[in-house]
Every structure is written in C-alpha cells, then in structure tokens.
Amino acid sequence: MVHRITPHNSTDHTQDGRRPDGRSDDPNRIVAALVAAVDAFARDSGVEHLTIDNPMLDGFFHYSRQPGAAGFGLTGLFPPDHKGYHDGARVSRAVGLGLVRAMLRRDGIWCRLQDGDRFLVHLGEDHQLYIGSTARCDGAIALCRELALLAEQIGSSRYDPASDRTEVLPPADDAFWTGLAAMVAERGGALLEETCVRNGSRWHRLTPANLDAVRTGLTRAPDWPSGRTSPTTSTQSSTP
After folding, report:
1. Alpha helices in the chain, H assignment, sequence order
2. pLDDT score of 237 more than 50
3. Alpha-carbon distance 225 to 36, whole Å?
4. Rounded to two decimals, what is the model's pTM?
5. Mapping DSSP to helix (H, G, I), strand (E, B) and coil, where does residue 200 land?
6. Are 73 and 108 in contact (CB under 8 A)?
7. I need a labelling partner for 8 at 20 to 30 A (CA). Which of 108, 140, 207, 240 fits?
8. pLDDT band for position 15 (50/70/90)?
9. What is the dihedral of CA 81, 200, 229, 84, to 10 degrees?
10. First-to-last CA distance in the chain?
11. How far apart are CA 52 and CA 55, in angstroms?
C-alpha cells in the first residue's frame, strides 16, 4: 500500500500562525518530521538498504538549487565527485534519509528510492512524500500523527516509474562495447558521452589505445536486474 505524507493543511492553523497542537510551521521542523516518518516506515518494513532510481543533480519541478547549497545536497553523503550517486546504486538507510533530507530542503538533487518491490520513497512538490510498503507500518502511521503529519492511504504514487516518459537507451553491455570498439578501430576514434545522472554528464575521447581503460574507469553498478533498459552509465557515441 502507498501513503501520501504531508504536513497538516494550512487551514488547521490558529490566528497566530501556529497549529492546534502548538507547533509552528518552522521549515526545519517539517523537514525533520518528514525524514523521521520515512525512517519509521523503513524500520517497520525491515528496510536497511535502498536503491537509487532516476537520480538528478539539479532541476526538477521547483527543485532549483538553493544559493549556497553545497554539492547539490550530496556533501557528506558521497565523495566530492559524487561517485556512488547513480542509477541503481545501493545505499544504506542512513544515506537514503540524507538524500530525502536534501530533497526536502531543495538543495538540488532529486531521485526515487526503493527496496525491490517491497518499499519505495518518492518526493513531490510542497513536501509531499509518497511512501509505499508491503508491510502494515502501524507504528510509522502513529508516529506521523504525533509529528503533526497527515498520512493518507492512496492507490499509487504520482511518481510511479510506470508513468515515466523518457528515452529508452540501450544498455552499455558487452555487445555495446564490442560494437564501439569496432567503430573506434575503423574510424580511429570517437567521442563518448557518459550520463550517470540526469542533467549531469561528461565526455571521453576514445582511441584504440585507451578504449579498455575508459571502459574500466566508468562507474557501473553490478548485477543489473533482467529487463533493465538502461545501465548506470547511459552512453552514446559520435566520431570526433
């Protein structure tokens, strides 16, 4: 089942701008409460690790980077070069909570988090959290009430991957690299674009001498599940 978690409606305020329970709309409190809710749902679901899906560095809905936000919100969670933040990366629950916190603070990044088919976390606009679990999560729902959060059971997340409309790229598998090697050998070189997160990419100039080294150096996630339409490193090539 999927729950949409939000702060209580603004009409529930008293004239002095405070909630009936005496709590204010302090943004830091709201962020802390929503992160605590995600943690509670994950614990109730027995989730210790999460998989990053469809990661972005900057720019989604109103997730424009805040001035001064260090590293798009990834500082302290990943190395300075963002290595490890890519599609399919498996991270600890603590790192997943850090990613949720960065998204709630509008530091720049956006991604979906999941644990197979049994757990998911999606973040929408206006602090809307979509949390799905195969477990009942009664304790987490009770905590939401204590934190002045509204937990509504709904049919599905608004950001379900099934609703994505994105370009389907071929996997950067052995067949891809074999074909690329043949092209590089024939033409003497090529340019390879590596895209490990949406709106974040870098280019590699390929030659017959460095092709294997470039392939080894690219970030890739092991053991892609069957049916995956794109790898950690989405690639395309052109002649220089």
Report:
1. 27-44, 93-104, 138-146, 174-187, 211-217
2. no
3. 30
4. 0.68
5. strand
6. yes
7. 108
8. very low
9. 10
10. 50
11. 7
